[in-house]
Design goal:
Elements: H1 2-19, E1 23-29, E2 32-35, E3 43-44, E4 50-51, E5 56-59, E6 64-68, E7 74-77, E8 82-85, E9 94-107, E10 110-111, E11 114-115, E12 118-121, E13 125-129, E14 133-138, E15 144-150, E16 152-157, E17 160-168, E18 171-175, E19 185-186, H2 215-219, H3 222-225
Parallel strand pairs: 9-12
Antiparallel strand pairs: 1-4, 1-6, 2-3, 2-5, 5-8, 6-7, 7-9, 8-9, 9-14, 10-11, 12-13, 13-16, 14-15, 15-18, 16-17, 18-19
């Protein structure tokens, strides 16, 4: 009976630690700073330090840090990144962190043949872990790029939860503020982050003495000038001074 209790205790220990939102620092390279949830100041992050829910971590240029979860899952935080540790057991899912800026690669362990059901948040995206290895990248515009390297990952806009994208191994997507995730493309494909809309300026006609747009201006407005095939531009125009050309020519059988 005593052995059974010891085994149960060891099995429940990771869950108890996760409930407290604890990460362990297993590697630090370069300038990495940490701010406790109860503090306003950043201090250097120490090796083997425990990081609690609500704590914030930021990495400098060329720096990185590895954070480990009690179940042996871990994440590699790249340079120029900023994240906040979440309470793993809040809500209906185990939210592991909020990545505010930068890049993190996640390595999720399997329990019972399935990946642990963690999730990751960004300012625009909610990523549910169904795979074991994936990247999350957040830029200054809060665009979130998610790459699935192994298994499967589910991605949705954190403000638009009625539609999600499932990433299979080797595929990626991007989430823009206020938009659904983009259709998945292969990791080696190019992602066009910014949608460019060509805007053509339109000439505003000068108003006449009554404050209304001039008829002459409307006839020769910018839209018509941009259409080279417009009949008003050619010699066959029906708007020229020839009254005969303004009349259609009808031909009747003899």
């Amino acid at each position: 009976m005593r052995k059974v209790l010891i085994v149960l205790t060891l099995m429940l220990l990771p869950s108890a630690l996760l409930a407290q939102g604890v990460l362990r620092v297993s590697s630090v390279d370069g300038k990495v700073e940490w701010r406790a949830a109860s503090s306003k100041n950043f201090i250097p992050l120490a090796m083997a330090q425990a990081v609690q829910a609500g704590d914030e971590i930021r990495t400098g240029s060329g720096a990185s840090v590895i954070l480990t979860v009690p179940d042996a899952s871990y994440m590699v935080v790249s340079e120029n990144s900023r994240l906040i540790v979440d309470d793993f057991w809040s809500g209906n899912f185990k939210s592991i962190m909020s990545l505010m800026l930068g890049q993190v690669r996640f390595y999720i362990q399997r329990m019972g043949g399935r990946p642990n059901p963690y999730s990751v948040r960004t300012p625009t995206a909610l990523i549910a872990v169904r795979g074991t290895i994936f990247d999350v990248i957040v830029d200054d515009s809060q665009f979130a790029e998610v790459r699935c390297l192994d298994g499967r990952v589910t991605v949705e806009n954190i403000a638009l939860s009625d539609r999600e994208v499932i990433l299979e191994q080797g595929f990626k997507t991007i989430v823009r503020p206020g938009e659904f995730p983009m259709m998945p493309v292969r990791n080696e494909a190019e992602l066009i982050k910014n949608r460019l809309i060509a805007i053509r300026p339109v000439t505003v006609p000068d108003p006449n003495t009554n404050g209304n747009p001039s008829i002459d201006g409307l006839v020769r407005d910018n839209d018509r000038r941009n259409r080279t095939s417009d009949p008003s531009n050619g010699s066959n125009s029906r708007t020229n001074s020839s009254t005969e050309r303004a009349k259609p020519t009808l031909t009747f059988p003899q």
